[in-house]
Each structure stands twice: as C-alpha cells, then as structure tokens.
Amino acid sequence: KKGRGEKEMANIAPGDLPFALKARKKGRGEQELANVVSRGLPFATMAGKMDREEMESVLKCYHLCIDATHPYAVEVTRNLKAACEKVGIRYIRVLRESVEEVDKEGKYGLLVEVADKEGNRSPFVVTANSASEASRFLEETEGNILLTTGSKELREFANIPRDRLYVRVLPIQASLEECLKEGVPARNIIAMFGPFTQKMNEATIEQYDIAYLVTKESGKIGGYKEKLEAARACGTRVIVIRRPEETGLSSGEVLGMLLKEK
C-alpha cells in the first residue's frame, strides 16, 4: 500500500519477496484478495492471469512493482512495464541466475563432453536461442527426448516423432489437454509437480532411457542445476533454451536497495 509497501518489503528476505502481481478471476471477473502472512507481515496475494488493464487497476494502489516472474514470461513482463508506466509507479525487474552463475565451477560448459553407453563422446550442453531452434537440432539426432519446458512449447517440437518425445508437465487439465492435442501418447506424459531433486531427475532419465534433456535456462529457482547434475551423471546431453536478454537486478540487489531506502 502507498506509504507502507516499500518499508514492509524491505524486511522480507530475498527468497520471500512477493514475486510479481497475480490475479484470480471469478465468475464475473472480479478480483479475489486474500490476506496472508509472510514472516509476520501481511500482504495481498492473487492467482491467475491478468491483462494490462487489470494490472493497471491493481497497480494504481501501490508505489512499487517488483517483477520476478519467470524469465520466459515475456508478455507478462511487457504488460507489467506498460501498466507501471501508465499509472506512474516504479518498476523493478528481478533476474534469476544465468547459466554462467549456476555453473561457477565450469562443470556444464560448452567444452565439457560426456560419453554415451557406446563410449562415443560429444558436447554435454548445446544451447539454442529458441524452442524451434532446439527442435531443429534434435531432428538430426537419435534417442529419446525429455522435454521439461512445459506444454506451451510443445507445438515447436511438431517435427519430432512422438514416440521419441517424453514430456514432463504440471498435472493440470490444461497441460494434459495440450499434450494430447499435440499428439503426445498418454504413456509419454509425465505429469508431476516439482521441485525435482537430482535423484528424481536421474530416475526419470533412466526410466525412459533419455538421450537428450531439453530445459529452459530457469536458474536455481527452476531446478536448473539439479537437471544438469542428473544429466551429467547419466551421460545424457542437455539442450538449453537461452532466456531472452533483459536488464534488471538480482533479488539480493533489490533487497539491498530497499533496505537503503527504508
């Protein structure tokens, strides 16, 4: 709230930052707000999708918007920026760790190689600038593929034979319907909630004899390192879809800035 929001947020640890604004639509489109507590401090939380006009309606009650949405939620970030500019409030983008920040020891770099079951060695990590670019690369390969990029990206992999493709998605109706719509056999759909540990990823890779694991550059929060560790242990190649380029601050930098302004 105006006059209080920035001071309250300054007392919240980096991992507890109320990441972005979310809204839940009810039958007639009205917003449902619930009071919850984080470290003893009340704040409003909403769930669901909002268009730019709905964001403007909510944001006009605040002085500051901290956008820590998923790095691939490009449309949401674009709408948040526009809404903040329209209502005249401050906007801060929080960035997740990059590949280089997660891989501080250089274990997952482009020069690292792994050997398959036949002893053939090839690069462990291959990067792609988009899902379609990753799909074109995989078209020239053999072996099963574990897609961990969500159901929304499935259409970009239409050129991959469905018997090769194993898809890990959220166990919700929309995700399952999208998988079936895109022709993924029911037996190849892995519907589970994360987060996934390294051991869980290893078990999945071994269960489905995965040769290639496709992931977004989702950072620590998205379980990126656990996927890399599991793939490396199993001799599985990783296709990393690089995140869109953007500018912003780390959660620690945002917290430090708020503390100084307190």
Task: Explain the overall architecture.
The protein contains nine helices and twelve strands. Helix 2 packs across helix 3 and helix 7 packs across helix 8. The protein has helices at residues 5-9, 52-59, 74-87, 99-102, 131-138, 173-181, 198-207, 224-234, 251-261; strands spanning 34-38, 41-45, 64-67, 90-93, 113-115, 121-123, 125-128, 144-147, 165-169, 189-191, 210-216, 237-241. The strands form four sheets. A six-stranded parallel sheet has the order 7-12-11-8-9-10, with helices on both faces. The two termini are 15 Å apart. With 262 residues, it is an alpha/beta fold. Strand 11, helix 8 and strand 12 form a beta-alpha-beta unit. Mean pLDDT is 77; it is low at 1-42.
How would you summarize the topology of this molecule?
Layout lengths: L4 H5 L24 E5 L2 E5 L6 H8 L4 E4 L6 H14 L2 E4 L5 H4 L10 E3 L5 E3 L1 E4 L2 H8 L5 E4 L17 E5 L3 H9 L7 E3 L6 H10 L2 E7 L7 H11 L2 E5 L9 H11 L1
Parallel strand pairs: 3-4, 7-12, 8-9, 8-11, 9-10, 11-12
Antiparallel strand pairs: 1-2, 5-6
Helix pairs in contact: 2-3, 7-8
Q: How is this structure best summarized?
A:
The protein is of the alpha/beta class. It has helices spanning 5-9, 52-59, 74-87, 99-102, 131-138, 173-181, 198-207, 224-234, 251-261, and strands spanning 34-38, 41-45, 64-67, 90-93, 113-115, 121-123, 125-128, 144-147, 165-169, 189-191, 210-216, 237-241.
